C-alpha cells in the first residue's frame, strides 16, 4: 500500500465529525438528514464530511426511491487501519539484494552514452534502480519546486511528469503543494 494513500486516509479521519459519522454508520445505513439530526449539524456540513469519507472509500451510498442512504465500508476501514501495523513488512519497503555491479549493469543497459534513459523499464526492480540513478544529483533536505525538478528530470528523460510521479509513488520523494523533497534513504525501496 502506498504511504501517500495511508497519510491521506488518516488526514481525512483526523476530524471529530467524520469519526462521529463513522460511529453512527456502524449501527447501519442512514440518510443525510438523519445523520445531521443526530449530530446537531446542518445538512451541507454533513454532505461535506460524507464526501470526504467517500473519497477515501470508507463510506458509500445507495439510492432507495428518493432517499440516498450512506453505508460504512467496514472492510475498507479495517484494511486501512491494519495496514499501519503491517508497515514494517510492507512491500513499499521491499529492498532488492543487488550489488553495485548488478545495478551498474542495469543502468548501462537502459542509458545512452550521454546518461539519458533509452526507456523506463516496465520491470519494477529495474525501474527503481533507474529512478534512484536519476536522483543522484539531488540534495537531501533541500526543497525543489516542481519546475526545478522537471528540469532535473529532463536531463535523463523527456517525460518528466511520469518520472516525477514515479519518484513519489516509489517513496523516493515527498510532495506537498508542488514542492518536492527527498525521503530518507531508509524509505527508498532499493
TrEMBL record:
Keywords linked to the UniProt accession: DNA-binding, Transcription, Transcription regulation
InterPro entries associated with the record: ArsR-like_HTH, DUF2087, HTH_ArsR_DNA-bd_dom, HTH_MetalResp_TranReg, WH-like_DNA-bd_sf, WH_DNA-bd_sf
Residue ranges of domain HTH arsR-type in the record: 1-92
Pfam assignment, any one: DUF2087
Database matches in PANTHER family: TRANSCRIPTIONAL REGULATOR, ARSR FAMILY
Protein name: Metalloregulator ArsR/SmtB family transcription factor
Amino acid at each position: 500500500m502506498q504511504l501517500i494513500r495511508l497519510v491521506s486516509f488518516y488526514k481525512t479521519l483526523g476530524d471529530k465529525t467524520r469519526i462521529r459519522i463513522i460511529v453512527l454508520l456502524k449501527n447501519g445505513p442512514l440518510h443525510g438528514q438523519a445523520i445531521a439530526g443526530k449530530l446537531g449539524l446542518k445538512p451541507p456540513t454533513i454532505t461535506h464530511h460524507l464526501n470526504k469519507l467517500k473519497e477515501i472509500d470508507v463510506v458509500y451510498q445507495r439510492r432507495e426511491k428518493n432517499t440516498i442512504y450512506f453505508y460504512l465500508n467496514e472492510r475498507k476501514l479495517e484494511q486501512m487501519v491494519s495496514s499501519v501495523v503491517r508497515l514494517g513488512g510492507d512491500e513499499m519497503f521491499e529492498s532488492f539484494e543487488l550489488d553495485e555491479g548488478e545495478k551498474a549493469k542495469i543502468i548501462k543497459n537502459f542509458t545512452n552514452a550521454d546518461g539519458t534513459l533509452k526507456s523506463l523499464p516496465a520491470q519494477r526492480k529495474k525501474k527503481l534502480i533507474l529512478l534512484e540513478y536519476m536522483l543522484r544529483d539531488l540534495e537531501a533536505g533541500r526543497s525543489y519546486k516542481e519546475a526545478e525538478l522537471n528540469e532535473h528530470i529532463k536531463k535523463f528523460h523527456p517525460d518528466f511528469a511520469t518520472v516525477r510521479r514515479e519518484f513519489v509513488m516509489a517513496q523516493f520523494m515527498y510532495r506537498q503543494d508542488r514542492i518536492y523533497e527527498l525521503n530518507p534513504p531508509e524509505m527508498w525501496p532499493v
